[in-house]
Design a protein that fits this description.
heterodimer; A: 273 residues; alpha+beta; Arc Repressor Mutant, subunit A; Phosphorylase Kinase, domain 1; 2 domains; eight-stranded mixed β-sheet; B: 186 residues; mainly alpha; Rna Polymerase Sigma Factor, Chain: A; 10 helices; 0% strand; globular
Chain lengths: 273, 186
């Protein structure tokens, strides 16, 4: 047992409430989440507290406390905002907030737009739906780091992982061995994002876990690759061949980007069309 | 039509597209802060009118916390106005007292009775509504508006550490109140 482990076991229980709640809220990075979970596993008092806090979280978040604004309020506000036209506001699901106007401001030529699409665009605007999915992807990543949830099929052999998904999903996720490049293949897992079954191919970089979620198009498609930070995790999203890829990890953005590029490169070996 | 008019319309349209999808979030927080539907509606409307006025200074990236910050300011201004008119009720004392209590208190009931029953949504709603303001605000921003700790800190204008302890305390208070409510039910 190293010094880090013994430090965890003596974590001060009287101060643990805040950490337990942060764990429930998915606000701890992977390392701290593991530390707290280790402590909880060894400490019945904190385990009981965690259960109670989690029950309250579940009760409140599951109680449907969000209220729909009454229709008359919506029309009142619409009237109060100066726009006399009879424009119909699209349902939220289909809203693409100002993405077009955001990019419309640039005179993007054909050659340039192709370059833009291929390059990494650090995006700060996202659609509602994309943001929701990105958040769900991060939650799924965090859930997977909790003991026993990471891998359904454990192997470093890509030829074991890929067939395992057969019949479990309506897509065949590409499984690529990147061990030589420093990303060890750990295995695969079924997960759920936005109510859909998705594949997760799990890699490891040093001590860091990378979940690569693969699904048929989740939400609105977009051509550009983007990388963003959510709750302290980095998320790289790209689309390819009708599939959506989300790589999530606590490794640095440039490393995660490197991972994504290797993945893309491996799927398009030089010389193939 | 002049270019300025076009610009103004475009701005208003962009504002609607960006801000109206969050009306349910704004309204829900308003209900829990103002505690009654009529005041909540007034606050939500005032929030949107103010937000449009300040839309030029909005730099993103997140629209939802930005709107909720404005809403919170609207509600606080309304409370300040009422305090001037009426006999002051000092909530701050009550809140300070709550901040000083230990977060965790040993359960007074057996484990079986602490099992939370999902169907008791009304009870949960009542218990959340009964929390002192800073805790109510934190729990609503987290559980209903789904904001991150950092976003809650920005909306409430307090450090992240304060958000963390308020949330821990809010859940603890809810649990204690829930156990009490459970005990009272035959």
């Amino acid at each position: 047992m190293n010094s880090r482990d013994s430090e965890i076991l003596t974590m001060n229980c009287s101060d643990s409430e805040i950490l337990l709640n942060a764990l429930i809220d998915g606000e701890l990075d992977a390392g701290h989440a593991r530390d707290v979970e280790k402590h909880v596993a060894a400490c019945p008092t904190c385990a009981a507290k965690l259960t109670e806090f989690r029950e309250m979280h579940d009760a409140v978040s599951g109680a449907g406390l969000k209220m729909a604004a009454p229709a008359h309020l919506r029309s009142r506000i619409e009237k109060a905002l100066p726009l006399p036209s009879a424009r119909v506001v699209a349902p939220r699901k289909f809203l693409q907030p100002s993405r077009r106007s955001f990019f419309g401001g640039f005179a993007v030529g054909t050659a340039l737009s192709a370059a833009l699409a291929a390059s990494l665009v650090l995006t700060v605007v996202g659609t509602d739906q994309q943001q929701t999915i990105a958040n769900e992807v991060v939650s799924a990543h965090i859930r997977s780091l909790q003991a026993g949830h990471l891998i359904d099929v454990e192997t470093s052999d890509q030829h074991t992982v890929k067939p395992w998904f057969n019949g479990k999903l309506d897509v065949a996720p590409p499984v690529v061995d990147l061990t030589a490049q420093g990303f060890r293949l750990l295995g695969g897992r079924l997960d759920y994002i936005d109510g859909e079954s998705v594949a997760s191919v799990v890699y490891q970089r040093r001590k860091h876990i990378i979940n690569l979620f693969v699904a048929q198009r989740l939400g609105a498609s977009h051509a550009s690759t983007r990388i963003e930070a959510i709750q302290g995790y980095n998320v790289r999203h790209w689309s390819e061949a009708g599939l959506d890829f989300w790589a999530v990890s606590d490794i640095a953005p440039d490393e995660l980007n490197e991972f994504g590029q290797m993945m893309v490169a491996a799927l398009h070996p030089a010389g193939s069309s | 039509m002049t270019g300025d008019d076009n610009g103004e319309r475009d701005r208003a349209r962009r504002f609607r597209d960006a801000a109206l999808p969050y009306l349910d979030d704004v309204y829900s927080l308003a209900r829990y802060l103002m505690r009654n539907p009529a005041d909540a509606e007034d606050a939500a409307q005032e929030c949107y009118v103010r937000a449009l006025r300040h839309f030029d200074s909005y730099r993103g990236p997140e629209m939802k916390p930005w709107l909720l910050t404005i809403l919170r300011n609207v509600c606080n201004a309304e409370f300040a106005r009422r305090r001037k008119q009426e006999t002051p009720t000092d909530f701050s004392e009550q809140e300070t007292a709550a901040e000083e209590l230990p977060i965790w208190q040993e359960p007074t009931s057996s484990p079986e009775t602490t099992m939370v029953r999902r169907q008791d949504d009304d009870t949960i709603r009542r218990l959340v509504a009964a929390l002192p303001q800073p805790f109510r605000e934190a729990i609503v921003l987290r559980e209903i508006n789904d904001l991150s700790y950092q976003e809650i800190a920005e909306v409430a204008g307090v450090p992240v550490g304060t958000v963390m302890s308020r949330l821990a305390r809010a859940r603890s208070m809810l649990r204690t109140a829930w156990n009490g409510a459970e005990g009272a039910t035959p």
